[in-house]
Amino acid sequence: MPQQQMNPRGRDVTPILLGIALTVFATLPFWAGKGLVFLAGIVLLQMVFALAFNLMFGLTGLVSFGQAAFFAAGAYASGWLARMLPDLPFFLTIAFGGAVGAVLSAIIGLVALRRASGIYFAILTLALGQLVYTLIGKTTALGREDGLIGIARPVLDFGVFEINLAAGDNYYFLILTASVVLSAILWWVWHGNLGRILAAIRQEPERVRFLGIDVRRYREYAFIISGTVTALAGALVAPWSQIITPMLAHWSYSALPILFCLLGGRSRFWGPAVGAIVFAGLEHATRTMVGVAELVVGGALLIVVLAMPGGILGTLSALGGRYFGTKREAGHD
Amino acid sequence: MTDLLEARDICFAYPSVRVLKDVSMTVRANECHVIIGPNGAGKTTLFKVLSGETLPQSGTVRYSGEDVTRLDAWKRVHRGIGRTFQVARLFSEQTVLNNVILALECRENIKGTSLGRWWRLNPARELVDEAMSRLAEYGLDRRAQDSAKNLSHGDKKRLELLLTLSLHPKLIMLDEPTAGMAPDDRRAVVAMVNRLREEEGLTLLLTEHDMEVVFGLATRLTVLSQGKVIASGEPEEVRRDPVVHEIYFGKGRHHA
Q1: Global pTM?
Q2: What is the ipTM of this complex?
Q3: Which residues from B are below 8 Å from A193, CB to CB?
Q4: A276 vs chain B: nearest CA distance in angstroms?
Q5: What's domain B3-90+152-251's architecture?
Q6: What is the pLDDT, as a whole number, of residue A84?
């Protein structure tokens, strides 16, 4: 693919990892406990969140510190609508969450992208994100500081058959399907014509401008696509966690996708997904170590970020390339 | 010859220094107009104003009769102005071929054809073929799969010109096209610029330091000094101008 430099000596390990991850996620409810399945659902949506974020960060070169605002906007919009109109088809409430995310990101993008360079953009998005956080916390209809609780998982009515999302692991499989679809859309944007132009904007915006492209409009496209997909992920999280609080919009939640991108490798499409899984794994493994858990997680992150500039996926691909490269050569002898 | 680009009374100042003071100049169709002047004379700033990279504080820029003073650079590109930079601006992480393909996709995007639509996963076959044949034309086809950042200085400049030409501009602005080049490469640039003007009917506007290059291709000269136009006209005329001789050629550094 144009914007990825594959290791010339061997093959990319990404498809293999992707196959393993998909198998694990798809079979999880059959062999893992309820707690782990719940965590997996959250991780899947955080993966989508991080992949959408990386469309701006890794591809377009924009560092936003306010992405949690869109995640929260999607969650609150769909959660609020589902409570107001309980009979509304489930997909419409999710779509409403996405639409609110699209409008909000268009507005915030228009303001923040006036200053697309580094720190200004970061601070503007941080400030606007915190504004959304404050507004949610002060709105009575959205439950103020307590948030919205008891968001139902509805029954999907397809006419000839019904799927009760409250039963068994049905909602988990809905999350899995939605994550695959949303990731596929992002993958298409990243690798297609639009992605090529966005990558070019990251590398040399003035050259792109003098190739006749309205750079600001394209940055806005990236911002809106990212914000909309993030809001859809947020909308899907509401019925899963069944409680949403203003913390979803807090800046510390905006830092999460940045972490996943750096951890997994932001120059590759699937890097943030690897980051999300590894981070959740670390947290899960250290959950009983009261007091030192943060230290272990933080230390591990520090090591990865310092020792692997390409992130885990970048490093794995380089190693995998070497491994498979020599293996194939040996086969030819 | 008709006027293609016209600057009138351009003033531009940074907070502490006035860079351009009432600069007026005209570029006629199919000429090779070279702006010369000592370092710090305002050549690059004038370039920025003419190409739309920055807005002047006062004055007007007209292109093909239309007032484009407030028009953003990318819109001027749509009207047929292309430019290169003093230090070539390329997509350095990508291959030489992908640089050209991207420029062609931008062209199709401007034209609104289906070849430049955002949902296209892979570049259209015909654009890849066109890119390869363009690279061959400019002697860069052997480097097609190399990363653009590994090109030599001269090849980088050539590739940037190729990207600019991909959009079929009417007017090309080249900022110091031979800066840092070996004599052979410089002569190649002169030959190429002359070919573009004579065979493809392009209009060129350049800034240039090397006097051998300047007199090898200029059909008209504008001399800038301390933000003012001190002379303009045909090369021989300007060369004989006593004021120009005094402050520019007189120092012997850039003697022709």
Answers
A1: 0.89
A2: 0.91
A3: 105, 109, 116-121, 123
A4: 26
A5: 3-Layer(aba) Sandwich (3.40)
A6: 87
